[in-house]
Structures are given as structure tokens and as C-alpha cells.
Specification:
There is one protein chain. By secondary structure, the chain is an alpha/beta fold. It has helices at residues 41-65, 68-81, 84-95, 100-112, 119-138, 159-163, 182-190, 232-235, 284-297, 331-351, 365-377, 390-393, 410-418, 428-431, 436-451, 466-475, 487-494, 499-511, 515-526, and strands at residues 5-13, 17-25, 150-154, 169-174, 193-200, 210-214, 219-222, 244-249, 266-270, 303-306, 356-359, 382-387, 405-408, 455-458, 479-482. An eight-stranded parallel barrel has the order 8-9-10-11-12-13-14-15. A seven-stranded mixed beta barrel has the order 1-5-4-3-2-6-7. Helix 7 (182-190) links the parallel strand 4 (169-174) and strand 5 (193-200). Helix 18 runs antiparallel to helix 19 (515-526). It starts with a strand and ends with a helix. The model has no long low-confidence stretch (mean pLDDT 86). Bound molecules: phosphoenolpyruvate (PEP) and magnesium ion. Phosphoenolpyruvate binds at residues 185, 268, 270, 309, 388, 409-412, 459-460.
């Protein structure tokens, strides 16, 4: 490692090492590099037209949902978007051989000068250009080179952009983003070596340089990978894990080439991830097909579908998620969930395999009961809720006889306990699941669930940390659910101790006054 030039340090996600040609994306995920089109003129024009239509449809939708005053501004923007002069400028740029992204950058910048005296309008107009570029980048036609392995370096990427990345993207370095952001979650799922909150020397590298991302040490350096020592997983004796292990999935590819060993079904299907970027609510045929395919491909065991979750970073266009915490207070959301539950029930019937569903963002025992009653009325086999809002975590005993199971979302539980932002790396000290307050909250929930005799799982990113897994096992958790690539390490750790040892490890971790101490004492006990 000594001779390698380290150019980024950050928090590693996925415990992998990968190298490839660097591809630097500037300006918040929008591709602004001047680039000639690699497509025919007709194909490039069609691509741009699709992106413009998508932005226009988004505007239309926003116009329907907003106040009179905002309607007026959005209407003006819509008129500008379709303005003949602007459209001609874009057309000429494409005819001159530029990519759609470059055409938008140039034409919008020129045109914006017309509004230089009108600050807000100019900004809104430029933002319209950025929206078109985002639509272009989200439409699977990223300008990322194909073929050779690629390491992307960017300020941040949206979950939608991540989902669409090709398989040749082996590494991602993000200057922003936190360890529980949905972008980081997708990187872990896809087996991409990732650094989030990376600080470093962007200027000492350029696109095309060979770059290695070492997510184990949290470093990236120029050049090929350096040999590193045999992994802990290989050193540990593998046996029967102390808890059941399930998968978290957000794409069909998460179900590819699975070895069934030690996997007890799926603990979290993030259903919204299958419909990111959908313009309207996916119809029942499309939804049922997706759920059916998942049920057919899922490894043996329980399959838990989470109903649509929508938050700022993975917003679904058909759900108003401005007030994420109060999804369930909207009748529109209940209608969407009704439709989703009926599709899930149909998939259950067609495949002849039991479906479990759980609701995200449940605030109270009353709300939980309402959801479960609805799911059962649709004929769903088993129904539970996620415990990810602090208010529900205090009501677990009231759920007796009302829900079939619980799953703890440690990502949001930490976010809402501490009032922090999952996308913001500077929050990550408090977002850490080793925080004593979070650990004792998980213990409270687990004890509550044990006392009323229902299964309790953890499906937040904390479950993928094998040391924490032992702590949770010691608290009495029944199931840990995680990305498939995290399973081998979890098995290795969870089979290396007895129940009594795990209880002692949990007791010691819970006694510590800060996150570092809790982690250090666990590392010492587990010899890692
Ligand atoms: C969580 O909040 O821990 C969770 C599993 O849900 P998501 O990460 O999708 O918000
Ligand atoms: Mg959540």
C-alpha cells in the first residue's frame, strides 16, 4: 500500500476492492462536459424529445397539485420550455452534432441571459435545463463509457441514476452522500466498491486514469489494486448463524446467482425501487408482473414486500412525499396502497406462494392495525410494519395480537431520533448505528416484540455490519436482512459465538457511553 498514491478517503460501503478507468462527473450528477453525440441525428433528437416530454409531464403534474400562485410560475416555465426559439436553438445544436446534454447546457445558458434582470425567473429557467439533463441521465443513456471497467467520481448520484448504471461500473466515489443514503444502499446491493463523503484531490486525477477503490480501508488510489491479506471471512470457521438471514432487494439483479445456503427468503423488497422514474402510478398489470417475478425467483423462506415508500431522494412521481412522515395521513396514499395490495394478493394467488407485506413510516399502533387489517382484507398471508419512526418504537406492547411481525428500519430510526439527513455525510457520526441511543432503542423494540411473541427483524443497513449483527443477536433479534454480498461475513460472525457469548457482547456494547467505545469493545470480544 505504501507506494500507492491515495487520492480520496471516505467511508467505505460494501467491503470490496475494485479498479477501473475513472469517469469524473461534475456539477451534481449532471453531465456538463461538452461532448459530441455518438448517436445518429435522428436518435439524438428523439432522445432529447423524450427528456423534454418527461419534464413537461412532471410540470403538468406539479401544476395540478399546486397553489394558484405557483401554478402561474410553472405555467410560464412550461411555455418557455416549448418556446419556438428555444426549440430551434436545441435543434440546431443537435444538427451540429452535439449531444443532448451539451445542447441543453449551451442553449439554456444563452437563453437565460435574456432574463438577467429577473433573478428568480433566470434561476428557475436554468433549473429547467438541469431537469432535462437529469431526465437524460436517468433514461439509461448515460454517457458513461461502456466496455472497460469504470470508477465513477461524482459529487453525488441519485438512486435513479444508480439503478440505471451498467455492469461495467465497478466503483463509485461520492464527495457527498452518507452511509445510509439510498444511493449507498444501491451500491452495496449491486456489489460496487464505494466511498461516500470522500474528501480528496480531484485535481490530481482526470477521467481515464486507472483508479482503485478500496472500500475496506475507505481509500482510493491511482493505479491497480495492491495485494491485501486473506479476508476475515475466509479465516473464520463457518457454521449455523445465530439468527435467520434474509435478503434486501431493490432490483431483479439482486436475485441473480444466489447460493441458497443460509438465506431464509427476502426480508425487504423495496418495491418503490422497481418503479423509480415512472411518470404515473404503475398500472396493475405491470405491478403484478413485477411481484410475480420476484416471488418466483426468491430463495426459499418468507418473502416480505414493503409497500411503496417515498422520500426526498427516491421520490415517486405519483406520490406526494413532501411530508415523508405523514404518508399515511394522505387518502391518495391509501388508495395507491390499496391497489398495490391487490396486485400483491394476485401475485400470491398466481404463484401459489405466501406473501408477507409490511408498511413503512408507521407512526402509531393504531395506524399499524389499520394497515394490517387492510392487507388481510386483500387476502395477504401475513402483515407487519416497519419500526422506523421513534413514536412507534414506544408503542410496541400495544401491537399485541394486531400485527404478525416487525422489521426495524435503523436507517430512518437514526435519522428521526437525531433529526439528521441521510444524504449528508457530516451527519454520519450521529447516524451511526453504534450510537448508544440507537442501540438501546433497538433493544427496547426487540424486548417489546419478544414479550408479545412476534417475530422481529432488522432490515436497515446496520444489519449488514457483522459485528453489530452479533450485538443484535445478543439482544434477541430473530432475523437480520441485508444485501446478498453481506451474507457471507454475517454467517461467519454469527456462527462464531454462542447465544450466551452474544448476550454478553450485547450487554457490554450497551454499557458504553459512545459509538466508538461500543464498537471497540465488540471488536475486542470478536477478535477482529
Ligand atoms: C430503513 O429506514 O432502515 C429502511 C430499511 O428503509 P429505507 O432505507 O428504504 O428507508
Ligand atoms: Mg426507511
Amino acid at each position: 500500500m505504501s507506494s500507492a498514491k491515495v487520492i480520496f478517503e471516505g467511508q467505505g460501503i460494501g467491503e470490496l476492492v475494485a479498479s477501473g478507468k475513472a469517469f469524473v462527473i461534475k456539477d451534481n450528477g449532471v453531465f456538463v462536459e461538452k461532448k459530441k453525440s455518438a448517436l445518429t441525428q435522428t436518435a439524438e433528437s428523439a432522445r432529447l424529445a423524450r427528456a423534454i416530454t418527461q419534464v413537461e409531464e412532471n410540470l403538468n403534474q406539479a401544476i395540478c397539485q399546486t397553489s394558484a400562485e405557483t401554478k402561474e410560475i410553472l405555467g410560464a416555465l412550461q411555455a418557455l420550455l416549448l418556446d419556438t426559439k428555444l426549440q430551434t436553438g436545441l435543434k440546431l445544436s443537435i444538427e451540429a452534432g452535439w449531444s443532448s446534454e451539451s445542447a441543453v447546457s449551451k442553449v439554456f445558458a444563452d437563453y437565460a441571459d435574456l432574463f438577467s434582470e429577473m433573478g428568480d425567473l433566470k434561476e428557475d429557467f436554468l433549473d429547467l435545463g438541469r431537469q432535462i439533463q437529469a431526465a437524460l441521465s436517468g433514461s439509461a443513456e448515460l454517457l458513461i463509457p461502456t466496455g472497460d471497467s469504470v470508477v465513477i467520481v461524482a459529487k453525488n448520484l441519485s438512486p435513479l441514476q444508480m439503478v440505471k448504471l451498467g455492469e461495467n461500473v465497478v466503483g463509485v466515489i461520492l464527495l457527498e452522500s452518507g452511509p445510509t443514503s439510498h444511493t449507498a444502499i444501491i451500491c452495496r446491493q449491486k456489489g460496487i466498491a464505494t466511498l461516500v463523503g470522500a474528501a480528496g484531490l480531484l485535481t490530481s486525477m482526470k477521467s481515464g486514469d486507472e483508479l482503485t477503490v478500496d472500500a475496506i480501508s475507505g481509500k482510493a488510489y491511482l493505479g491497480p489494486p495492491i495485494a491485501y491479506s486473506i479476508s476475515e471471512t475466509a479465516r473464520r470457521k463457518i457454521g449455523e448463524p445465530l439468527t435467520k438471514l434474509r435478503l434486501n432487494i431493490g432490483a431483479m439483479s439482486d436475485l441473480k446467482s444466489l447460493s441458497q445456503e443460509n438465506i431464509d427468503g427476502i426480508g425487504l423488497v423495496r418495491t418503490e425501487m422497481f418503479f423509480l422514474g415512472a411518470i404515473g402510478e404503475p398500472d396493475s398489470v405491470e405491478q403484478t408482473q413485477v411481484y410475480e417475478t420476484i416471488l418466483r425467483l426468491a430463495p426459499q423462506g418468507k418473502v416480505v414486500f414493503r409497500t411503496f415508500d417515498s422520500s426526498e431522494d427516491k421520490a415517486l412521481t405519483f406520490i406526494d412525499s413532501k411530508n415523508h412522515e405523514s404518508l399515511w395521513n394522505s387518502s391518495q396514499y391509501w388508495e395507491i396502497i390499496d391497489q398495490q395490495l391487490s396486485c400483491l394478493a394476485l401475485a400470491q394467488k398466481r404463484v401459489g406462494r405466501e406473501v408477507s407485506v409490511m408498511a413503512p413510516m408507521i407512526e402509531s399502533a393504531t395506524q399499524a392495525e389499520q394497515f394490517v387489517r387492510k392487507a388481510k382484507a386483500h387476502g395477504i398471508h401475513s402483515a407487519g410494519v416497519m419500526v422506523e419512526l421513534p413514536s412507534l418504537s414506544l408503542e410496541i406492547p400495544k401491537l399485541e395480537g394486531k400485527v404478525d411481525f416487525l422489521s426495524i428500519g435503523t436507517n430512518d430510526l437514526a435519522k428521526y431520533l437525531f433529526g439528521l439527513d441521510r444524504e449528508n455525510f457530516s451527519s454520519s457520526n450521529l447516524l451511526t448505528p453504534w450510537h448508544p441511543e440507537l442501540l438501546s432503542r433497538v433493544k427496547l423494540i426487540v424486548e417489546g416484540a419478544n414479550s408479545i411473541g412476534i417475530e422481529v427483524a432488522i432490515c436497515g443497513e446496520a444489519a449488514a455490519d457483522p459485528l453489530l449483527g452479533v450485538v443484535f443477536a445478543g439482544m434477541g433479534i430473530d432475523v437480520l436482512s441485508m444485501a446478498r454480498l453481506s451474507i457471507p461475513r454475517a454467517v461467519a460472525y454469527l456462527s462464531s459465538v454462542t447465544v450466551d457469548q452474544a448476550k454478553e457482547i450485547a450487554r457490554q456494547a450497551l454499557e458504553q457511553s459512545d459509538a466508538e467505545a461500543a464498537k471497540a469493545v465488540t471488536q475486542e470480544s470478536l477478535g477482529s
